[in-house]
Amino acid sequence: MTLIEKNLYSQIHPLRLITDWVTGLYACYLLWYQELIPAMITAFVPSLIVSLVIVRFVDLEKVKNSPFGRYFKRIYNRTSDLTRFGGFVVMACASWMQYFPAVAVGLAIIIGTWTYGLFTKK
What we know:
Largest sheet: none
Helix content: over 70%
């Protein structure tokens, strides 16, 4: 498996997904209480470490050949990556401003980006 494929499939490894969701939500909690530095560390450092460990040590062939791996390969592109990140930025900014409806919009953007392929054919 090439490094590019490892980077791609590491994004959907269960450990990475759990890490991203838990730390992202906790970072938003911290931002709600104006804890900027701890929130930024929480949002990015654990995911970076987990990604490096997965790419270096985990055999991602099972992930690649799974139904979710095939789905992700079909829907993934740079735009979807940036859209997911944009959804997190909306959640983070809305958390900082303590405006829950916008947090929900950011979450909807992320969920929509992950699931739009269920409603389209490629």
